[in-house]
C-alpha cells in the first residue's frame, strides 16, 4: 500500500480536505466524493494533503509573512491591467509522437482573477453525401442504405440528412456553431485554478475561461482552427481527428469532425459473467478479464514490473457483483460479493497494478433487471474511474489546445497499433509531459508529468479534466505574465497570507490547506 | 484484431455494459478486395468477394450485405486490384510526428495485406482507384422525373431524365423539398391558384411528390417559395439534362 494513495484515509479525511480546484457540482456519494478528490488533485497531492492534516497545524516563521512592500509591488503590477498575447502555440514545447502545438490567444485579467483562452474557429461545412450523390469516405454504407430505400421520396429525404442547409446561416449551420461552443466551453472552463506562488503576490488568482469564437471560415480570416464538420444524421458516426499543422503556426490547425457534436465513445464499462451458483472466473471470461486488466492496469516503470510509473493516474476500479433472481436472496447477496472478490483476486494475480488500493468491490445480490436465469444477470460490472463516455469533440479540442493523446494501444483500445503508426504504446511519454512537469501544486512541488495509458482522462479514453490537462493554459499564463511567477495550482490566498506550504515540517508540499489550518 | 474496440464504440452514450459478439473481418475465403479504416474512435470497411457479394460495416463490427456486383463488375474490380499488386505491405505517411488520432487503413488484395499508416493522406492512387471504381459502379441508376414548377405566374413543365442531384439549378428547390425542418423567411412570392401546387414531381415509376402553398408542414411552403423565387423557371429549357 503506498502512502500516496490510501482510500481509507481519503474516506476518513474527505470532509476536512478542501478541494482547491473548483468543482462546480460537488459529488455527493462516498464513491463520487472519493473519485472527485482523486480526480481534482491526483493521488500524490491527495496523499500529501492527508498527511499534512494528520501532521497537525504548524507555526509560520516571520519571514514567511509578505511585507507591505511586496504586496504593494504586486498591486502596482495588477493595476497595470490586462496582460495578453495573440497566436500562442504552447504545445509546441512538447515533443515526439502526436505532438499538437495548439493555437489560441490568451488574456489575463488581474482584477477579475481570470485567464481567458480565446480560440477563433472557422467552420468549413462539408456534406456527408454530396448533391451529386458521392459519399465521403466512411459513409459508403449509409449511401447504400439510402439507395436501397423503397421509394425515391424516402431516398431523397434520407440523402438530404447528409447535406448542410443552403446559405451561410442555414439553421443547421448556426445550430452547429452554437452547439460547439455549448459543448466545449463549459467542459474545459473552470476545472482548475491557479494562483501566483510568489511571496506577497499569492492573492492573485486565475480561474480559466475558454472562449471559442465559432463562425463560418469566410468570416474568420484569422482563425486558429479550421473545423470541417461532415454532415451526418445524429445516429451515424464517422470518427474525428486534428491535423495540428506547423509547430509554431497558431493558425493552421484543422479539425475533422462530424455535425454531431454529441458523438461519443465508451471504453470504461465492462463485465464478466459466471456459471450458475459459481463465483470463479470461468474459461472465456478469463480472457475477457485479462483484456480489461491489460488495458487498464496502468503504466509501469517497465512493462510487467508491477511498479506504477510515477506519472500514472492509477484510475480506481469499481467492481459490482450481481446474481440472477432465482434462488435464495441471502445466498445471492453473498454470491454477488464472492464474485466481486473473485474478480479482484484474479486482477491482483494477473498483472493489475496496485489492485489493493485501486479496487473497491461490492455485491448487490439479485439483479432486478431481467429476472429468471439469464447469464448476463450473473455478472460483475467493472467500472473504470468515472465510467463515463468520452465526447469526441471535447477530446479533439484538447488537441486544439495543444495536448497530445494519453491513450495507448492495448487489447481494448486500438489494439495492434504501434507508435510508428501514430498510436502511443503503454507507458510512452505524452507529448505535453514536459509542460506538465513545469506545473507546480499549491505547495510548490512540480507535477510528475503525463504518461500514455488508458484511463478516464479526457486525453485518454474518458471524460475527466485533470490538472495536467491545463498544461498549455498554464504555459500561456506563464508567458503572458512574465517575468512574474510561478503560477501554482490552487486558490489564491488573502493578501497578508504566507504562501501555502510555508509552515512547519513536512508541510512544504501541501497542495492548498484551509486558511485556518495555518495560524499566523 | 481491432474488433472489440468497435464493439465498445457501439455503446456510445447509452451507459450500458453489454458487449456484443464481434464479427471476424476481411480475411475470409473468397475475398477479392477489402478495406477497413479508422482509429480508436470509429472504424468502417467494405469487402467484395470473387462471387460478387458486397458487404460493408460502419461502427458496428457486423458486416451488412448489399446487392451483389455483376460478373462484369467483379472483373473490372479484379483488374483494378491487379494494378495494385506491386504495392509494399506497409505505406507510411511520413509526417513527423504523426498527427493525433490518425486513421489507419488495412487493405486486402486477394489475401495480401497493404497497411496505410496515415489514411487517407498517404493512400496511393492504385488503392484510391479501386475505391473510386467501386463508388462509380455503385452509383444508383438515375430515376427520371418530370417537374411542374409554379413560376409566380404560371406552371412550367421540366423534364429531368438524369439524377436530380446532377442538375445545379434544382439544388435549392431539392433541399427545400426534402430537407428536414425547413426554414426560410416568408417570401413575397405569389401563391398559385387554389388546387395548383407550388411544385409537383412525378418520378418514372409513377411515384409523385407535391408541395402546396398551404402545406401542413411548418416552414415547408415558405422554403419552397424562397427556392422558387431564386430562379426564372420560364426561361429554362424544357429538358434540364
Ligand atoms: Zn486524440
From TrEMBL, chain A:
Residues 498-511 have a biased composition (Low complexity). Residues 1-30, 81-101, 484-520 are annotated as: Disordered. The keyword Manganese does not apply. Residues 1-15 have a biased composition (Basic and acidic residues). One of its GO terms (cellular component) is membrane. Keywords: Membrane. Gene3D superfamilies: OmpA-like domain. The keyword Membrane applies. Residues 261-388 form the OmpA-like domain. It holds the Pfam family OmpA. InterPro entries: OmpA-like, OmpA-like_sf. It comes from the Bacteria. This is OmpA family protein. It comes from Solirubrobacter phytolaccae.
TrEMBL record, chain B:
This is Lipoprotein. Residues 1-17 form the signal peptide. The keyword Signal applies. It comes from the Bacteria. Keywords: Signal. It comes from Solirubrobacter phytolaccae.
